[in-house]
Design brief:
Blueprint: H1 7-16, E1 36-42, E2 55-60, H2 76-82, E3 87-91, E4 98-100, E5 114-116, H3 118-131, E6 134-139, H4 146-160, E7 164-169, H5 176-181, H6 193-210, E8 216-221, H7 236-250, E9 256-261, E10 264-265, H8 274-280, H9 286-289, H10 292-311, E11 315-321, E12 324-325, H11 336-352, E13 356-360, E14 372-373, H12 377-382, E15 386-387, H13 389-398, E16 404-406, E17 408-411, E18 416-422, E19 428-434, E20 441-448, E21 455-461, E22 472-473, E23 489-491, E24 497-502, E25 506-512
Parallel strand pairs: 1-20, 2-3, 2-13, 3-6, 4-5, 6-7, 7-8, 8-9, 9-11, 10-12, 11-13
Antiparallel strand pairs: 1-17, 14-15, 16-18, 18-19, 19-25, 20-24, 21-22, 21-23, 21-25
Helix pairs in contact: 3-4, 4-6, 6-7, 7-10, 10-11, 11-13
């Protein structure tokens, strides 16, 4: 949704006021926690493999006309490429205010905030090729113009080629009536999913005729949480009718079921007064991002969604996601703490069986949750993007793609999460994510059935979880030209395990073998 009203915040808006006085969410303790944590990895029981294209980025559709999508005119392609062979999604709220314009010399329609031309799709194809990524492309549903969408899909098939993974029809149709109330432009008034299905079918039929064999993913429904422990557990029930209706109409084995998720929303940007926003949890601080409660509620939602998709034989993808909806919260979603949240959330999704996530990015807003952004108009004009701390979190997650998930147990009072995979070459990779302000001690990692011997380590670090805009990865940072070549340091095996010291929150990628 990006620039508009986010996920579950919309779904819950009618009930927020009724539960404004709900209990506050717990945060990590300020006092020191016991200085010992043990992580045990069972390398003898590999499970599902994390797809190579698990880690994706999401952008607004109106970015397609920007010159940064041209690999010859910015460093963005290099920044994306470091993350691995993933996926690029162009859709979000802007897609339903964007017109397909096959003749770029013609004036766009009066209702359109932006237009997409065939040349834009050619640049996107070049970007996908340069970054070794696939593409999910959104088409406008709000105008109810299947012919225009079909023409755009046909041009995308021609200009992006086999890297076009799917077409997505509209953005968050389950909240169209409410988006319109907040200035989101004209939208169909889908009160029930049964009103949406015929329109979606007309689009699918038109696209199938114009671009045979092109996959369509959906329904890209809004979902998530507002940060209130009373409201949040109730929200998946609002999604059930939509997901069930989509599955009944369009479900097929191997097809992608796509959903959006944000664990929080900046309700102040929705117009709530600060007092009400604080009461419902809509102004999260870093400690709330990094709390056990947040980790638990995210895992619960992801399990719900995976079960829904797998029950229909479909592939579960979280096609748009990040930490705090409504474009984040400055001083929270652009911090080192947000990088640690990114690791915990993304690796939880991988562990629970999500086949891919697309982290949403507002490339012109470095104070948002953006991983890649232009610091100012001059940087945008020159095509010189920089990265936020959560980029390094995503980079660490990308090192786990292609690995088979291993069982992990974590013993200790500190809020430390851990994830492990066995790579195709037999190496075992373990992420230890320390999200606890009060923990000052050692995490001991043991690996049953692992390759043995020494290991190497890369550390994501920052002055504190509250540090804005700056972090290091393996002691280095992304250069201004986009180059990035982190090294690693050796870790000796001691008594059958590896000791990793934490004096402050941070994350470590340990590779054994």
């Amino acid at each position: 949704m990006g620039t508009g009203i986010r996920g579950a915040a919309i779904t819950a808006i009618g009930t927020v006021a009724l539960t404004a006085a709900g209990p506050a969410m717990a945060v990590p303790a300020a006092a020191d926690t016991p200085a010992a944590v043990t992580v045990h990895v069972d390398a003898t029981a590999p499970g599902r493999v994390i797809p190579e294209d698990f880690l994706g980025l999401s952008f607004e559709a109106d970015q397609l006309h920007r010159t940064w999508t041209d690999p010859q005119r910015s460093n963005v392609d290099e920044l994306i490429g470091h993350l691995g062979a993933g996926n690029l999604r162009f859709s979000a709220n802007a897609v339903d205010n964007t017109a397909w314009q096959p003749d770029p010399s013609a004036p766009p329609p009066a209702w359109a905030d932006a237009a997409v031309s065939p040349d834009d799709l050619s640049r996107l194809g070049a970007l996908a090729e340069a970054t070794d990524t696939t593409v999910d492309l959104g088409v406008n549903l709000a105008r109810r113009d299947p012919a225009a969408a079909a023409d755009e899909a046909g041009q995308a098939r021609e200009r992006i080629g086999p890297r076009l993974r799917s077409i997505q029809i509209g953005n968050e149709p389950n909240v169209y009536p409410i988006v319109g109330l907040f200035g989101g432009g004209e939208r169909p008034q889908y009160v029930l999913p049964q009103q949406y299905v015929p329109d979606a079918r007309a689009y699918r039929d038109a696209i199938a005729a114009a671009a045979p064999g092109t996959r369509i993913s959906g329904p890209d429904t809004a979902g998530g949480a507002v940060g209130n422990p009373v409201i949040d557990p109730l929200l998946p029930a609002a999604l059930d009718p939509w997901l069930d209706a989509y599955i009944a109409a369009f479900g097929a084995p191997g097809a992608a079921l796509t959903q959006h998720y944000y664990p929080f929303v900046n309700t102040e940007r929705m117009g709530f007064p600060q007092e009400l926003s604080d009461a419902v949890g809509g102004l999260p601080m870093v400690d709330k991002l990094l709390s056990r409660e947040t980790s638990d509620k995210q895992a619960a939602f992801l399990r719900y969604f995976v079960a829904k998709a797998e029950g229909a034989g479909m592939v579960p993808r979280i096609s748009e996601t990040n930490s705090v909806a409504m474009e984040g919260r400055p001083g929270v979603t652009d911090t080192v703490g947000a990088a640690l949240w990114t690791i915990d959330y993304a690796m939880t999704a991988a562990r629970e069986g999500v086949a891919g996530i697309n982290l949403h990015d507002h490339i012109d807003d470095c104070t948002s949750y953006s991983m890649i952004c232009f610091a100012d108009p001059a940087a945008a004009d020159s095509g010189t993007a920089r990265v936020n701390p959560n980029y390094y979190g995503a980079y660490m997650v990308g090192r786990m793609a292609g690995g088979a998930v291993l069982p992990v147990t974590v013993d200790g009072a500190a809020h430390v999460s851990a994830f492990a995979v066995r790579m195709p070459d037999g190496a075992v990779r373990v992420i230890v994510d320390d999200m606890d302000r009060g923990f000052d001690g050692t995490v001991r990692v043991t690996i049953d059935g692992g390759p043995g011997g020494g290991a190497t380590m890369q550390r994501l670090d920052g002055e504190s979880v509250d540090t804005v805009g700056e972090a290091t990865y393996a002691g280095t940072t992304v250069a201004a030209d986009g180059s990035f070549a982190p090294g690693s340091e050796p870790v000796l095996a001691e008594d059958g395990g590896y000791a990793v010291r934490f004096g402050r929150p941070g994350a470590v990628l340990l590779t054994a073998g």
